[in-house]
Amino acid sequence: MFVVMEQGATDAQVAAVIEKLVTVGFTVHRSTGVVHTVLGCVGPKEDIIDPRNLELLEGVKEVHPVMSQYKLASRNFNPAGTRVNVRGVEIGGDAVVVVAGPCSVENEEQIERSAEQVAVAGAKGLRGGAFKPRSSPYSFQGLGEAGLKIMQKAAHRHGLFVVSEVMDHTQIAMMEQYVDLFQVGARNMQNFNLLKELAKSRTPVLLKRGISATIEELLLSSEYLLSGGNYNVILCERGIRTFESYTRNTMDISAIPVVKKLSHLPMMADPSHGTGRRDKVIPMARAAVAAGADGLLVEVHPTPDQALSDGAQSLYPDQFTELMQQLRMIAPAVGRTL
Amino acid sequence: MFVVMEQGATDAQVAAVIEKLVTVGFTVHRSTGVVHTVLGCVGPKEDIIDPRNLELLEGVKEVHPVMSQYKLASRNFNPAGTRVNVRGVEIGGDAVVVVAGPCSVENEEQIERSAEQVAVAGAKGLRGGAFKPRSSPYSFQGLGEAGLKIMQKAAHRHGLFVVSEVMDHTQIAMMEQYVDLFQVGARNMQNFNLLKELAKSRTPVLLKRGISATIEELLLSSEYLLSGGNYNVILCERGIRTFESYTRNTMDISAIPVVKKLSHLPMMADPSHGTGRRDKVIPMARAAVAAGADGLLVEVHPTPDQALSDGAQSLYPDQFTELMQQLRMIAPAVGRTL
Amino acid sequence: MFVVMEQGATDAQVAAVIEKLVTVGFTVHRSTGVVHTVLGCVGPKEDIIDPRNLELLEGVKEVHPVMSQYKLASRNFNPAGTRVNVRGVEIGGDAVVVVAGPCSVENEEQIERSAEQVAVAGAKGLRGGAFKPRSSPYSFQGLGEAGLKIMQKAAHRHGLFVVSEVMDHTQIAMMEQYVDLFQVGARNMQNFNLLKELAKSRTPVLLKRGISATIEELLLSSEYLLSGGNYNVILCERGIRTFESYTRNTMDISAIPVVKKLSHLPMMADPSHGTGRRDKVIPMARAAVAAGADGLLVEVHPTPDQALSDGAQSLYPDQFTELMQQLRMIAPAVGRTL
Amino acid sequence: MFVVMEQGATDAQVAAVIEKLVTVGFTVHRSTGVVHTVLGCVGPKEDIIDPRNLELLEGVKEVHPVMSQYKLASRNFNPAGTRVNVRGVEIGGDAVVVVAGPCSVENEEQIERSAEQVAVAGAKGLRGGAFKPRSSPYSFQGLGEAGLKIMQKAAHRHGLFVVSEVMDHTQIAMMEQYVDLFQVGARNMQNFNLLKELAKSRTPVLLKRGISATIEELLLSSEYLLSGGNYNVILCERGIRTFESYTRNTMDISAIPVVKKLSHLPMMADPSHGTGRRDKVIPMARAAVAAGADGLLVEVHPTPDQALSDGAQSLYPDQFTELMQQLRMIAPAVGRTL
Q1: Of B29, B66, B76, which is closest to C29 when you measure between CB atoms?
Q2: Which of A238, A261, D95, D273 has its CA 20 to 30 A from that of B266?
């Protein structure tokens, strides 16, 4: 940690800051520059003091913490990169893995058709929501466990793994019977009670970035899973909230190479939620793979116009097929297969 | 709902849109302007169709939904404004109500001193966290139920009502024994499972705006509580995330008059979380009252330097006393007392 | 324009709004829905009234303008898409056009080497700044006209067109002698005096999106150029300001397909300013092409470590060569060549 | 400057970074912590190297610059605070100074009535635009010099100083004849050519924060004025762009106490542009004064409904009078007069 004193800070002020630092356990090195005095502090654990407590001392200009708060998620914990095995499919390896399917599980026929269509086109996983968190209390709320049963049967019949969102820690035990990869939605990225319970599971977890979460906060949330013992973690960009309102969110494609540098965890992208509009899903899916994503989550529905939720961002099956062909051309440019 | 066709949209495109609208149950009125054809649609329920499904039709330029998705939270549901009674104290009435106390319940002595100090200075409620959602898994996580017991005793002894954060629907029944006003934190503003269960409680709820939530989303979340039967809802501004990083969040003071216009619910402000720095809490507390807030939530700690969490944004007791004196001068300028 | 009345608006309020609308020249159609009364207004010119003036009338809930404020920039003005000819190179056609070069013109040798290297790798244009707008008054401010002379000589010798930023309307006449494509920087996107003067030029203009400009504002600014008579306009995404601070800006890749849908103008992308970090330039350049960009602006410097400005975001020449090879693999996936 | 090496950085990597630092002129002090090696660097001028050039070296985790890039704007340059004298009125002193008037100068009668009304209510300055930068090329563009003449006559007759926006460096000489305080609009906050020329003037300058400018960037822009020799600089908050779209901008009230701490320059607030809606101007004006603003800029128009621009955010004269009365009650709470 570094404490930069204001220009003109008095010796008494500097001494008071040093005393505070020493009291909590830091070793302090003082450098006196032309303009600023700077205190470099080395301690056993940096978070023994809230940096803001130092910033509020007289004569302090600013405080720079040094240590990352995330440790296990950091790249140098596993420089070669983690490959997460989801029912035999490796995410984070040479192949870009595509997970596709409808927003919500609606009925058996819809899921069966979805599974068949996306498997034929080359997807490896089937996505579908059984519990739908909707901003309005007046909208369709999902089929629950019945939906998961339908989904598991259809997915496994077509050789696909099952991805579905867990909303609450009370759902984990039930869902583990059906799901091969838990999805934690953007709104739950900082639901620490949920993360702590998922950490005890051995089922892999796909953790989506919150719409107002920094990349560092995403990594800190993954730390809850890793430090609790679940190392099968995959991260996912799905759009952040900005002033631009033409698209529902602004998909932060640059987060993909940034996360790949900072962390060893695989990084996927969800262009369906990232844009909210079917006609933008395809270009953003291509962009994500071109930027180095380890996989994609794409909403596809046999008949988007009849979808009970998010039909507007679901691809038609033939659009998905065409997208997969384009991705097969792009993947080699980043040294990947599909 | 209005559908605006693109300049140059063909008659066939217009006809296709009209057919779609009529099929789902709308009555359509077509106006042909110099540049754009516009379709006005009146139907039994506007949300029978996702506007994005219309936007994706050929020839459609844009779609404007008309009906608010929130109904019970809307001002005209109770034009005179709602006054929420919290253990005999009215929030939303003539008096500005101040709730104060430490970030976390740490021990009996700390809470007793806090309660005494804030009561003497004029606060009506005691705040304090028993469960602490921390972004790092390595930080202090709260005292739990034991903390709530301590808090209730101290608060009621000093004539204060108790405010504490509920993190999860499984905590509601236990917490109801101790808490006079449930706080829903910013991260849980869209935890709909939690909101649905709180709606069944008769204990009042203070709902904080999420750091990336629009005012409309805040009102929609309050609708979950109201439509479920809990009418004792208070809203709270506590800062939104913007590009400016000098303050932890940017406190959106203008949300106060905006919410007061759109909704009948009381609107409080939390300048402690809104700024994250003790030296900015006081000016922002004054600003919130000057802008028309119905109350404040302020972090005060008997010894902020020893606080286990958020000491940097906690006021010293004498700073709080001084703030209350300033607020007593400002309140009459907005026709209020304190 | 549509005016939506509040639930419970009185007949007198509705009548007052209608009167106001009729007075300024609108024909009004009233629809009475279950909840809201809505007034559809058709007039000769929509902007004869500021929508906020209507919003402030008693009983008005919201106002929706219908007509785009941009007309000439709109896609339907030229549905096939505009191709801008810059010294014989077509931008907006089948080929993705890459412009490359250093941030600033520093000296003759640096520019000559830059021009040669980027031409060999396949670039069609040479970029370089002669006037450097720096946020600090204490930084290198550029070579001015001398720099433009050097640049023109080197570029044309290697068959490249010249792109350089114009800072001010007083520079236009001088710069036209050297520059084949004027660049308007992000900070000047709404410098309307500058745009009005550039509109009188016949030299093409590359208009960069401001870091806090919406897509609609970018198109409105282009309207200043088009309505003033300069139809050779190219737009460019270069990152917007968001809460995420790991990258200097957040490059809004989705703006590329959005602009291509809304407007007929070519849309380029600048991954160097969009990310501010060399190691992120390459993935974001690939992403932009995969998303459908008509061209790229990339900073390349013969020796980035010695660059007088922005060396950190400049590619090494061999990195640029490698990027061009990757782009040649991606372009066919979007039906383009390079 | 501090360079934090990654966990696991090799000795060779550390040595390479030290060499680079020493080469450009830094003295380096190395601290080896449990996890990270940190290099503290002291040099004659910190900006001899772009921190990003260090961030890109192998093994570097992050770089923290220490010195502020602004020097003359910094609080410790004049700890007592600067008072700017504008035609005999002191801004930054004990009294809160209110400047009021219409958005645009429209005609003699409108300005005469505006000046009279705001002077009677207690304003000290008259504001009004002669050149209107409009996002649409099809809107009213201002009266130019004729407008300034009208304005000067009316203002001085009523004992008010004149504030008007300068759009371009070519207008300075002409405008200096009429204007007592130059306003630099939000869009020009980083128009460095304009700032450099204004720095040569002795007329005071009111510099508005750009809608996407950080507080630090605002101070850096003021440094252009100060370092060029014009010390009569006043800063002004007028709203930043965020995801919230109910208000035109989000007025960052917290910027007021932040700037007052970081800088000695006076800080005003413009609630009219900060909110864009008349009904929000009054609460935000009160909030700004309660938060410690040195003054306000408020749009007032004799007949807002007939205003040629921004009528929707202009107060009626009697609303302004009422606001002034409220401000007189609030000012003493912050130790000020009005």
Answers
A1: B29
A2: D273
Whether this model's ipTM surpasses 0.85 comes out as: yes
Contacts of D227 (CB under 8 A, 6+ apart): C137, C138, D72, D199
> Count of residues for chain C?
338
The string over D30-60, giving b where at least 16 C-beta atoms fall within 10 Å of a residue's C-beta and e elsewhere, is bbebebbbbbbbbbeebeebbbbbbbbbebb
Residue with structure tokens 């407590």? A53
- Residue range(s) of every CATH 3.30.70.1140 domain in chain D: 2-67
> Do residue B53 and residue A311 have CB atoms under 8 angstroms apart?
yes
Q: Which of A96-110, A127-141, C279-293, C315-329 is predicted least confidently? A: A127-141
Going by C-alpha positions, the residue among B135, C302, C149, D32 that lies closest to residue A192 is B135
Instruction: Please give the single-letter amino acid code of residue D299.
Output: E
Separation between Cα atoms, residue A34 and residue B34, nearest integer Å: 69
Angle at A234 between CA A229 and CA A237, to 5 degrees: 140
Tokens standing for residue C254: 């989705």
Using the beta-carbon criterion (under 8 Å), do C64 and B64 form an inter-chain contact?
yes
Q: How far apart are CA D257 and CA A217, in angstroms?
A: 28
The Cα C81–Cα C92 span in angstroms is 7
Per-residue pLDDT of chain D (338 residues; tens, 9 = 90+): 788 888 778 889 999 888 888 888 887 878 776 667 888 777 656 566 777 778 888 888 888 776 666 789 988 889 999 999 999 999 999 999 999 999 999 999 999 999 999 999 999 999 999 987 665 666 667 889 999 999 999 999 999 999 999 998 999 999 999 999 999 999 999 998 899 999 999 999 999 999 999 999 999 999 999 999 999 999 999 999 999 888 889 999 999 999 999 999 999 999 999 888 889 999 999 999 999 999 999 999 999 888 777 778 899 999 999 999 999 999 999 999 99
- Other residues' Cβ atoms within 10 Å of the Cβ of residue A141: 16
What's the gap between Cα D36 and its chain centre? 40
Q: What is the pLDDT confidence band of residue A214, given thresholds at 50, 70 and 90?
A: very high
- Convert the pLDDT of each residue in C160-186 to its tens digit: 999 999 998 999 999 999 999 999 999
| Best C2, C10, C56, C246 residue to mutate vs chain B (most B CBs within 10 Å) | C2
C-alpha of D185 from chain center: 9
Task: State how far the Cα of C25 lies from the Cα of C49, in Å rounded to an integer.
Answer: 10
Q: Does A167 touch chain B (CB under 8 A)?
A: yes
Element (H, E) at A18: helix A11-24
Dihedral angle, C-alpha D191, D193, D198, D200, nearest 10 °: 150
Of A52, A135, A193, Cβ closest to residue B276: A52
Partner residue facing B257 (CB), from D255, D261, D280: D280
Q: Picking from A110-124, B23-37, B183-197, D120-134, which range would have the lowest pLDDT averaged per residue? A: B23-37
Q: How many residues does chain A have?
A: 338
Q: Give pLDDT, residue A263.
A: 95
What is the arrangement of strands in the sheet containing B60-64, beginning at the earlier edge strand? B27-32, B37-42, B2-5, B60-64
Helical (H) or strand (E) element with B247:
none
Q: Where in chain C is CATH 3.20.20.70?
A: 84-333
Q: Which CATH number fits domain C2-67: 3.30.70.1140, 3.40.50.880, 3.30.70.890, 3.100.10.10?
A: 3.30.70.1140
Length of chain D (residues):
338
Three-class DSSP category at B129: strand
Are D237 and D270 contacting, i.e. CB atoms less than 8 angstroms apart? yes
Alpha-carbon distance of A99 to A101, in angstroms, equals 7
The CA distance from C83 to C265, in Å, is 8
- Chain C residue with the nearest C-alpha to that of A284: C291
CATH class, A84-333 region: alpha beta
